Amino acid sequence: MTTLAIEAHSLGKHYKEATALSDLSLQVEPQQIYALLGPNGAGKTTTLSILTTLLPPSSGTARVAGFDVVQQAHEVRRRIGVTFQEIVLDRDLTGRQVLDIHGQLYRLGKAERTRQISELVALVQLEDAIDRGVKTYSGGMKRRLELARGLMTKPEILFLDEPTQGLDPQNRAGIWDYIRTLNREHNLTVLLTTHYMEEAEALAHRVGIIDHGTMVAEGTPAGLVASIGTELIRMQGSGDTAHFINTITTLPFVLRVDQDQQQGAIQIYVDNSTRRLLDVVQMAGSNGMRVDDISIARPTLGDAFLHYTGRGLRDS
Ligand SMILES: Nc1ncnc2c1ncn2[C@@H]1O[C@H](COP(=O)(O)OP(=O)(O)OP(=O)(O)O)[C@@H](O)[C@H]1O
Ligand SMILES: [Mg+2]
């Protein structure tokens, strides 16, 4: 039996005013990319803080790289890298100084630090900027530097709290590439938190949906989508849309109907999309709707999220 990279059992974190985590369990296999996906205040940062030994749990236990995060915090710290949700770079330093000081903090020798810095700077493509002050960096460059800093100590397991928060799509895709490379070529286990649906879908081997301090669903992205037992017919049409939606909602095989605010497409969630396509077209015809376009579409992780949490994920 191989040791799990990360395992948490019934973690709780209670404050006087609030419960941040109520009963959270999770398991991450070595060399997996695991995404904790959840809305603001779900308990993602709290979970990460406990797993990285920065915060003691009120209840439950967790092991990282086989070591207990409370009893053997030192052993855990030697094997992990962390980047935080808030950027915490000293603006008066150059990028190189940030990395070097971090290496010194972890007692890496001079030669080792130099070797690590040149390798990591190449990985995150900061060669041109590494000797400039961090205050001249863009948001994307700061995130890349933070990623490099988290990697200075050659961790086995990397914890990333919202690694692309606030980045534009291009910078976000860049960070995703580095994370994939680290996972594939350096066998790194990655636990990241995100409230971006696309991030979990693009990166993660497994996803845990977390809400109100507990895990509400868990699996591969495709598995989570399949587990909701829903297929999707997407229709573009004109006519009395409201009446059509009301009518079709009453059919037993229709699980939910909603309308895309921007494009006006009607999304009809059904038990079996190929079998129900003709019924939907006929219903439209007999309810005065003109069908301009109709297609079978696949539900997304966003649909699974809505199913399990009962609400959409604010993209803020
Ligand atoms: N030190 C604290 N004292 C009191 N309540 C706290 C404390 N830290 C966190 N909480 C509460 O616990 C809950 C979970 O917080 P947490 O930061 O883990 O959420 P999150 O999922 O990381 O959210 P976000 O997406 O906004 O980063 C929130 O309701 C938060 O207000
Ligand atoms: Mg957070």
Give an overview in words:
The protein is an alpha/beta fold and 316 residues long. The protein has two domains: 6-225, 3-Layer(aba) Sandwich (Rossmann fold); 229-298, Alpha-Beta Plaits. It has eleven helices and 14 strands. It has a six-stranded mixed β-sheet with strand order 6-7-8-3-9-10, sandwiched between helices. A hairpin with a 4-residue loop joins strand 1 (6-14) and strand 2 (19-28). The longest helix is centred in the middle third of the chain and has 17 residues, at 169-185. The radius of gyration is 23 Å and the shape is elongated. The two termini are 41 Å apart. The mean pLDDT is 92. Residues 15, 17-18, 20, 38, 40-46, 85, 195 line the site of adenosine-5'-triphosphate (ATP).
Question: What labels would you give this structure?
Answer:
single chain, 316 residues, Alpha-Beta Plaits, binds magnesium ion, four-stranded antiparallel β-sheet, alpha/beta
Biggest sheet architecture: 6 strands, mixed
Structural class: alpha/beta
Mean pLDDT: 92
Helix content: 25-40%
The CATH topology of the largest domain: Rossmann fold
Q: Unreliable stretches, pLDDT < 50, 5 or more residues?
A: none
For the record, the count of structural domains works out to: 2
The CA-CA distance between the termini, in Å, is 41 Å
Task: Using the alpha-carbon principal axes, give the shape.
Answer: elongated
- CATH superfamily membership of the largest domain, which one? P-loop containing nucleotide triphosphate hydrolases
Q: What is the N-to-C order of secondary-structure elements (H for helix, E for strand)?
A: EEEHEEHEHHHEHEHEEHEHEEHEH
Helical stretch tally: 11
| CATH architecture tag of the largest domain | 3-Layer(aba) Sandwich
Q: Roughly what fraction of the amino acids lie in strands?
A: 25-35%
Got a strand count? 14
